[in-house]
Description:
Structural class: alpha/beta
CATH superfamily of the largest domain: Zn peptidases
Bound molecules: ligand BES, manganese (II) ion, zinc ion
Radius of gyration: 25 Å
Number of strands: 19
Number of helices: 15
Strand content: 15-25%
Number of domains: 2
Low-confidence stretches: none
Strand order of the largest sheet: 7-8-10-9-13-17-14-15
Largest sheet: 8 strands, mixed
CATH topology of the largest domain: Aminopeptidase
CATH class of the largest domain: Alpha Beta
Amino acid sequence: xxxxxxxxxxxxxxxxxxxxxxxxxxxxxxxxxxxxxxxxxxxxxxxxxxxxxxxxxxxxxxxxxxxxxxxxxxxxxxxxxxxxxxxxxxxxxxxxxxxxxxxxxxxxxxxxxxxxxxxxxxxxxxxxxxxxxxxxxxxxxxxxxxxxxxxxxxxxxxxxxxxxxxxxxxxxxxxxxxxxxxxxxxxxxxxxxxxxxxxxxxxxxxxxxxxxxxxxxxxxxxxxxxxxxxxxxxxxxxxxxxxxxxxxxxxxxxxxxxxxxxxxxxxxxxxxxxxxxxxxxxxxxxxxxxxxxxxxxxxxxxxxxxxxxxxxxxxxxxxxxxxxxxxxxxxxxxxxxxxxxxxxxxxxxxxxxxxxxxxxxxxxxxxxxxxxxxxxxxxxxxxxxxxxxxxxxxxxxxxxxxxxxxxxxxxxxxxxxxxxxxxxxxxxxxxxxxxxxxxxxxxxxxxxxxxxxxxxxxxxxxxxxxxxxxxxxxxxxxxxxxxxxxxxxxxxxxxxxxxxxx
Length: 502
Ligand code: BES
Ligand code: MN
Ligand code: ZN
């Protein structure tokens, strides 16, 4: 794993160096010093290129022969006045991508501060380091035959700046958020023969060392509680289901002691069950635990940085398999709430897991609000692609808080309508409801209406359908392709902006 250290901006004389440059090919104080020392090579290279210093632009220069530096990489900062935290994260991530895949084991990121930046001293530097770390993530533990030039050589990144002490301090909590993001990415990337309900529950136990209380329910305990909907999904698998509660008590003196509750769909593999999915692409369904993964990572981030908030994370963990013991289309199950569900399609399993986890959360914790995250419907990908997660809620305040938090961390949400007409669509002639709508229309909304039937009156609730966001096939500045950990930074920001200290 990449090690990040902060150091005062003394000019290094070895290895590869990345330097920030503002729009108009503008060098900062450190940049100007470096350019003088290197006989004007930076200005000369910029003059000969189309590099302007625009946001995330890159220019690589081979260092002059007499210098002991190997390469110099200029990264565009854009307009320094607009250099917000996410802009700096993107610049750090872009710099990291330029550094990766080379022979250097050590690199320097020199973050020049420009006049007019709205961020406090050291903050821009810390955010760039955060972006660099987020982008550095790799999952290649099962690739045993990588050739030396395919392996990542970069081991340490020295982040140099005039405000190293302040930057190091500001970075402390960002590093904890990155730890949460990395845990989620690991859990989501692991194959389904390695991560299944019992092993995912074991992974939750690693949060104990941070002061998180971890409680794991097995099938016997869930049966006693009446969780017939969750257990109906689990019954087809040789791997028994689990329900895990993670509690973080970070604010014992809060005015409102009730916790915020995060609920995660943790289907460690979704074959569809008896309503089996087509073979093509089914391997993707290893990341059908992305909601649970995000909840676990968010809890790690919050506990790691000792957030002053009371939060519980509850994840329903099952494997959805077809077998002689699997539930059938037509089965009627009784949920913990007492409401009965006719299972028309065993592939609409996520809502069956969530409804019992949500009811349990309300009975046990009387939470001040409920936020569930789930890779729930393919339909949300048809609606929104891979740019926004779907947001469904009974509460305008909670919705705007989540949308605002999402904007700030670039994990965006788009709110969908809900209503009685959609709700009617899941009525069943045989039970209290069925688990899918009548036609193919509004599949993400009818799924949300199903969950809403398990939210007690007066509880602010939001459902995040993250099916399009948990995994991505293209690199982004701070998120390499693969498991994104979408939701971790969003939930962390939601807590810091709206719950902490309140
Ligand atoms: N896990 C899937 C949803 C999904 C699809 C996530 C593609 C990520 C990518 C979910 O359990 C599912 O199978 N949903 C069905 C619901 C349908 C049967 C009403 C779907 O979306 O097709
Ligand atoms: Mn399914
Ligand atoms: Zn699923």
